[in-house]
Amino acid sequence: MFRQNASRHERHESSAGDAAPANDYAASDRAAVPVRETTPGRMWVPRTRGAVSGLALILLGLWGALIPFVGPYFSFSFTPDEAWTWTSARGWLEVLPGAVTVVGGILLLFSANRAVAGFGAWLGVVGGAWFIVGPVLAPVLHIGDPGSPTATRPGFQALQQLAFFEGLGAVILFFGAVAVGRLSLRSHRDVRRAQRLADTHVADTPAP
């Protein structure tokens, strides 16, 4: 009986010894998954963080760049009151800041990198600021005359002035500044979302 018990004990130790390497191998497989490489870093940001501001910057930038060329069709323009007429002032004071704002909005809307999206937000800030100060600096910089509103009533003249330059620039500046502020923070929700993405990637990664 003593020999039978001894043989049973030896077989149990042998089976435990065979299972231990298998468990160690499975653990090593899990440890071999490059978690650090797949985990989003501090520069990752969800695209929804700047989606609203990015879309607003795109629409406002398109308005600012195109309104001097299409405004004469519905009597909403600055002099010269001619559609699709290029002037130096229109290029420097409206097309340029509008294009910069659109590019910033695209970067802000589609980028998941904090630095790239932040750069897009700052482009929006710069574009909005230029819409505001550009007409004032135009005579100093000799980049052309922005013209004057074609409306005859003072109220409509003020509306055109705001819609083409100062008011438009203030709204663009607002959305750009909001995006800059939101992108400068890394909230707890961002950390949890990044961790979920990393866990999902690890679970879907096949063992080598």
Explain the overall architecture.
The chain has 208 residues and is mostly helical. It has a domain at 48-192. It contains 8 helices and no strands. It has helices at residues 2-32, 35-38, 51-70, 88-110, 114-141, 154-164, 166-183, 188-204. The chain is elongated and about 65 Å long. The two termini are 47 Å apart. The model is unreliable at 19-38 (pLDDT under 50). Keywords: Membrane, Transmembrane, Transmembrane helix. Residues 1-28 are annotated as: Disordered. Residues 16-28 have a biased composition (Low complexity). This is Secreted protein. The chain crosses the membrane at residues 51-71, 91-110, 122-143, 163-185.
Shape: elongated
Give the overall pLDDT as a whole number. Answer: 81
Helices, by number, come to 8
Number of strands: 0
Transmembrane segments: 51-71, 91-110, 122-143, 163-185
Keywords: Membrane, Transmembrane, Transmembrane helix
Region (Disordered): 1-28
Protein name: Secreted protein
Considering the chains and any ligands shown, give keywords for the structure:
208 residues, mainly alpha, 0% strand, elongated, Secreted protein, membrane, transmembrane helix, transmembrane
In short:
With 208 residues, the protein is mainly α. It contains eight helices and no strands.
What order do the helices and strands come in, and which of them pair?
Layout: H1 2-32, H2 35-38, H3 51-70, H4 88-110, H5 114-141, H6 154-164, H7 166-183, H8 188-204
Helix pairs in contact: 3-4, 3-5, 3-7, 4-5, 5-7, 6-7
